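Example 9 (inverse folding). The structure is encoded as follows.
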């Protein structure tokens, strides 16, 4: 076999391998993107997992790490800056200045009717006029609050409630058989992740909710959802040795859909909500 033939054979082999691998890579990428989605709205938001989650992913839903908010302060020059650069009173004061004498009363002119004016009030005894340096210092003291008010930081506007609040519950679409509450073997790994989370945090309590769609009678769906919630709770107690006091079960039936259409199959799910 010549080098040219060998090269063409290798090229075709690599091309076929790449063509066969690309769909699998695309499927894996699509699966990782849609592995978890937030469904529902408002207080009924729930993080739905399409694959068995890790303990870290579940912990992020029921006990997210608090985000530390920082706030920067900007100092803007203005009246405060001008006041800071103003010379101190001691730089311009001559402490030997005599008190300022009070103004003399005006002498009425002859043959002219003066306009009546209020007589100036004489200074009280024992209260001489304030010296110039003290008046200057008084002006500085009265101007300081105005400068502070001019540069005071305006009150912060009330923080609007975050519209994209994270869900406080998570859920799985366990593929129960028709009218059955038995947990399928392929869905056990979902509940095992919940058991590992509860073992890691002994203070965590969970409410297990069973949900159905609106197909069938209301009474049948309420009972079926209750049986499925009890089945999941019993699995956690039996397999993972979780204290039954930490688990509450509730059958919701079709009363709390997360899809607009109450008959949508996405409404069939098991939810877990923290109670601690």
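The amino acid assigned to each position is listed next.
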């Amino acid at each position: 076999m010549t080098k040219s033939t060998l090269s063409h054979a290798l090229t075709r082999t690599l091309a076929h391998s790449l063509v066969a691998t690309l769909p699998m890579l695309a499927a894996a990428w699509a699966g990782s993107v849609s592995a978890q989605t937030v469904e529902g709205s408002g207080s009924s938001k729930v993080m739905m997992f399409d694959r068995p989650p890790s303990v870290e992913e579940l912990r992020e839903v029921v006990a997210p790490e608090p985000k530390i908010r920082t706030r920067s302060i900007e100092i803007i020059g203005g009246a405060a800056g001008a006041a800071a650069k103003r010379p101190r009173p001691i730089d311009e004061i001559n402490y030997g200045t005599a008190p300022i004498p009070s103004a003399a009363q005006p002498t009425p002119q002859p043959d002219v009717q003066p306009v009546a004016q209020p007589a100036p009030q004489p200074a009280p005894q024992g209260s001489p006029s304030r010296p110039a340096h003290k008046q200057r210092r008084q002006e500085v003291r009265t101007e300081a609050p105005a400068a502070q008010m001019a540069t005071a930081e305006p009150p912060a506007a009330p923080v609007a409630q975050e519209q994209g609040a994270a869900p406080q519950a998570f859920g799985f679409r366990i593929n129960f058989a028709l009218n059955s509450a038995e947990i399928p073997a392929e869905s056990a790994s979902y509940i095992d992740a919940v058991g590992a989370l509860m073992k890691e945090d002994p203070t965590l309590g969970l409410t297990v909710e069973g949900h159905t769609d609106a197909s069938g009678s209301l009474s049948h769906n309420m009972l079926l959802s209750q049986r499925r919630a009890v089945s999941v709770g019993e699995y956690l107690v039996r397999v993972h040795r979780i204290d039954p006091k930490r688990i509450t079960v509730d059958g919701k039936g079709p009363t709390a859909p997360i899809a607009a259409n109450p008959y949508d199959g996405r409404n069939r799910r098991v939810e877990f909500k923290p109670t601690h």
